[in-house]
Amino acid sequence: MTTNKSSNSNRNWLISLSILIILALAPFVAYIVRFWHHKILAVPENWGAFGDFFGGVFSVFSFLATVYIAYQVSNFDRKRSQEALRFEKTRFLNELREAEYRRINAELEKIYFLKKDKSICDHTNVFSNQVAIFINTNTHLFPFLNDKKSEGYKICEKLLNSFVDLNSAATWFYIDGRDRMDGEEEVKLKKAMDKALLEARFTINEFTGLIQRFIIGEMDQSI
To answer: What is the CATH number of domain 103-222?
Structure first.
């Protein structure tokens, strides 16, 4: 992107320089074509008129060139200021995105160290709340959260649902249904809970990959 902008700028300057050269030579060409056969330079008294002609032409040309150069310099400074402002805005946004990613990722990584006891119910409830907060408060950092049909939103929603399912399975296994299930049912419920835990971990990997790709993509666009 920067290379294209630089190429366009150089091309514009070459076009402008060509126009200025043509304007500078035009009076010479017109004068020579008009008075070539008059041999005016052979008469010293005509040199003053010759000088007055070109002096008048070049005074106007010099004024126009000065105005044009001033305009180009002003336009260049304005564009450079806009580019600097856009770069700072993009950098600040990426810093906020990275900070939010580190925060939510630090929370989600705790799932790999959970003890398989009733404390998993409280942890999964916290995870669900953290993901819900991420979805609802970061639409300005991650625009895909505004589009419920986007892949990014669907992955976030899938992550939230995986924690809800894991919490339900763990709550029934460790608390609500603990005294009401026999050995066979306990084995089935434990397998279901383990499956829900594995699904949650897999979805966390999808989520972190999504956020990383988005941040890197935004960085690439700002170059």
So the answer is: 1.20.120
